[in-house]
Amino acid sequence: MEGLHSILILLAASVVVVAVFRRLSLPPIIGYLVVGVAIGPSALGLIEETAGTHLLAEFGVVFLLFTIGLEFSFPQLHAMRWAVGVLGSLQVTLSLLVFGAIAAWLTGDIGVALVLGGALALSSTAIVTKQLTEQLEIHTRHGRRAVGVLLFQDLAVVPLLIAIPILAGSSDNSLASELGLALLKGIAVFSVMVWVGRKALRPVFHEVAGARSNELFTLTVLLIAIAAAWATHLAGLSLALGAFLAGIMLGETEYRHQIDADIRPFRDVLLGFFFITVGMVIDLPALMTGAHWVLLIAVGMMVFKGLLIYGIARTVDGPLDATRTAVILANGGEFGFALIALSLSAGLMDTATSQYVLAAVVISMIAAPLLIRHNAQLSEWLGGAPTNPIDHASAASDVTQLANPLDHHVIICGYGRTGQNIARLLDEEGIGFVALDLDPQRVQEARSAGEPVSYGDVERREILQAAGLDRARMLVLSFDDPQLTIKVLEHTRTERPDLPVLARARDDRWIERFQEAGATAVVPEVLEASLMLASHVLALLGVPMARVYRYVRDVRGDRYRLLRGYFHGAERIDMEKSDRFREQLHAVTLSGSARAIGERIAELDLEKRGVRVTAVRRGGIRGPQPDPDTVLREGDVLVLYGTPEALEHAEHTLLGGGKAA
């Protein structure tokens, strides 16, 4: 019962603290650390550290390395070869040498110096990638640089994790021979796993997938991940290495995305336990007496890493992109905790030595979301006023030179696949256009092919003006970036309220928002694809083309109202992306005891609750867009459209609850 008591305390504290940290837009990792500090021996002392809790926590790192292996891709490495091979390797190596040298001078222990140097050299993959994705910066130049460095850091953790048990061992052999032996073992294990993976894994997963059982699929993934970790452990290597290698093998199969989705809940929960155990190690009284040292380490680490990354990135990037990359990566990371925790459990380092570094990394991770969120403003401030205008003036000058000969032309914002297809049709019709894009390689290749494309950030008003906004015939927003679309629409409506603007949207939830911002027409990809597929179906079934065209015209004229929402069924919902396709369809059958029987639809006031009745099915006949005065009868099936919360309330009202107020 003592174990159950501890688990209840852990879960209750985690739920409360992580919920609060989510509300404050702080990383849940910090929340787990706070839980560990609060319930640990230095504070409330509610839970004692045991071998069981450490083993559970170590599996959090195992599954983290497994998911990193799943995402590992040789084509991705090649595409980001400079960011990974040059920027990432130099940053990790130089940071490790500098921080390690300082630690060696202070502690006199090479092993401890290697661990502390490695811990301080790493940044937070979880915080950086999540924040950049939320800010729609993951595919920008500085975003790709940051991801490349993080990828190398994730790979660099693997040899560090292997080295810690060797450094903590009591073998008489030299460190070089021990690491060499570990390398040979690693190569042997990797070769065996590659052979087994190619021969067995794909056929096994074909059979498992054929069984159409989610439980069996998840169990198989867990078995392979843990078995691989156990195999490397038997070879005298770390558990995490085996999980990483298994992830690489499974990442080459067509099931990698399903595997990642299935394993993520286990990884997140076990990682939470891992960070709680790290927090339990922190000694609050000791930190209070040495708070100035903690701040010195935190600030020193972030300043040095920022300057180092800026200096390396500046060799190929402009000052703004280099500074933004440096600000994003200046923080410490979760793998620093993993290295320190493993060295503590291996006996390589004592608790007192790790306290200040752990606290410094925590402080940097608390500051990370704020720094990343405002990286653009910080970069402009740190870079100084002279550099920014010169870069944008140069870009605007290039756009002006390209657009000057044009009049009554089309401006295409975004020159990806959609933008290029639009450009080809305009070119066929002899309609002049100028395209703007932020991918320098794409711009260079298109310019080499003679296409009127220029590098330019359409978020900046001066770039749109340089493209001839005052004399343009139309503006097309072909990129999939809702926030940027709204900003461009606001700029355009200020300068040219009469200009037709066409905007691309991923789904129907952006139609009204884009039109309110000034879009003349919005093309939602999902609904347009459904409409085209349906029109082909009707045509092949012999429906006259005139009637098919009328359907298409009416649906578009009614802003796709007929196609809005769908029955979600039992599909998996990602809580991190709960806003996507929020509105949905839901069918409610009025049984004999339903309260809504005998009432008119208008009397239910469902629309005040955000729910619309799209159809009523009665006696096998479906009537779309029912009249508000329709009186409901027993056996009627109402098709409702709204958010899940509103639909639940509406169903309660229809079947047995009170009327919506």
Layout of helices and strands:
Elements: H1 2-23, H2 28-39, H3 51-71, H4 74-79, H5 81-107, H6 110-121, H7 125-134, H8 141-168, H9 175-210, H10 214-234, H11 239-251, H12 256-281, H13 284-289, H14 291-313, H15 319-329, H16 334-345, H17 351-373, H18 375-383, H19 387-403, E1 410-413, H20 417-428, E2 433-437, H21 440-448, E3 453-455, H22 461-466, E4 474-477, H23 482-495, E5 501-505, H24 511-517, E6 521-524, H25 525-540, H26 545-557, E7 584-589, E8 612-618, E9 621-624, E10 637-642, H27 644-655
Parallel strand pairs: 1-2, 1-4, 2-3, 4-5, 5-6
Antiparallel strand pairs: 7-10, 8-9, 8-10
Describe what you observe in this structure.
Residues 407-524 form the RCK N-terminal domain. There is one protein chain. By secondary structure, the chain is an alpha/beta fold. The chain has three domains: 50-382, Na+/H+ antiporter like fold (Up-down Bundle); 397-519, NAD(P)-binding Rossmann-like Domain (Rossmann fold), CATH 3.40.50.720; 575-655, 2-Layer Sandwich (Alpha-Beta Plaits), CATH 3.30.70.1450. The protein is 64% helix and 7% strand. It contains 27 helices and ten strands. It has helices at 2-23, 28-39, 51-71, 74-79, 81-107, 110-121, 125-134, 141-168, 175-210, 214-234, 239-251, 256-281, 284-289, 291-313, 319-329, 334-345, 351-373, 375-383, 387-403, 417-428, 440-448, 461-466, 482-495, 511-517, 525-540, 545-557, 644-655, and strands at residues 410-413, 433-437, 453-455, 474-477, 501-505, 521-524, 584-589, 612-618, 621-624, 637-642. The chain has a six-stranded parallel beta sheet with strand order 3-2-1-4-5-6, with helices on both faces. Strands 7-10-8-9 form a four-stranded antiparallel beta sheet, with helices on one face. The longest helix has 36 residues, at 175-210. It starts with a helix and ends in a 6-residue tail after the last helix.
